[in-house]
Amino acid sequence: MTVHFVRHGAPLVDPGVPPHEWVLDPARLPELDALADSDVLPATARWCASDEPKSLQTAQRLAGRLGAGDVERVPGLREQRRPAGWVEDFASKVHRSLLRTDEPAAEGWEVADAVRSRVVATVRALADTTTGQDLVLVGSATAWVLAVGEITGRGPDLAAWERLRMPDHCCLDGAGVVSPWGRWDAVDGHAGGHR
Questions:
Q1: CB 151 within 8 A of CB 123
Q2: Distances (CA, A) of 52 to 14, 24, 73, 80, 88
Q3: Closest listed residue to residue 12, CA positions, set 192, 135, 160
Q4: pLDDT 10s digits, 37-68
Q5: Which of 144, 123, 132, 121 minimizes the C-alpha distance to 58?
Q6: At what angle do helices 90-99 and 141-152 cross, to 10 degrees?
């Protein structure tokens, strides 16, 4: 079975709201359409998304454009919890989180070990209950970098986290990477922030 990890599209960033409550930026929806039209995502697949609005909206738009049908809400795929508020030097805090996985990178941040355990267990459970089709999972950057690192046995790829676009795509077949992050589109015009 092939598992497609999709990073959500660009959200409307509101520092007064926790990131897990952000919604998609309507002005950036054409970037999702470009991913849907890139032919890397299967229409005939089991589609699952984090229950966070930006991920669920991404999955619904992609699946709808591909005629893929319903999207399952899967809370276990959610991103690392972080509180509302602007984070100075966000990238270095995420790096710290990915390197020191047993401690919070900032006050109120969920530790990466907890994220990895939850997300990998959820991905494996979904894979175990999916037969005869591919699996498309839509979620967020840190959760996906931790999950892909664990599944491939390579550990979290900080360089991949830095390169991730909104949206982005990585495809695994078992523990092997079939398509790394960013290969769905040769044009680097879809780059977004790292929230």
A1: yes
A2: 15, 11, 9, 11, 23
A3: 192
A4: 999 999 899 999 999 999 999 999 999 999 99
A5: 144
A6: 30
Q: What is d(CA 76, CA 67) in angstroms, rounded to the nearest whole number?
A: 25
Spatial contact of 167 and 60, defined as CB atoms under 8 Å apart: no
In the block, tokens 């969920």 appear at 110
Write a three-state SS string for the chain.
CEEEEEECCCECCCCCCCHHHCCECHHHHHHHHHHHCCCCCCCCEEEEECCCHHHHHHHHHHHHHHCCCCCEECHHHCCCCCCCCCCCCHHHHHHHHHHCCCCCCCCCCCCHHHHHHHHHHHHHHHHHCCCCCEEEEEECHHHHHHHHHHHHCCCCCHHHHHHCCCCEEEEEECCEEEECCCCCCCCCCCCCCCC
pLDDT, mean of residues 101-121: 97
Nearest partner of 144 among 109, 188, 181, 182, judged by Cα = 181
Among 109, 171, 175, which residue's Cα sits nearest to residue 142?
Answer: 109
What dihedral angle (degrees, nearest 10) is formed by the CA atoms of 80, 164, 173, 40? 120
C-alpha 18/C-alpha 145 separation (Å) is 20
Taking residues 93-116, what's their average pLDDT?
96
> Whole-prediction pTM value?
0.93
* Longest CA span, the chain: 45
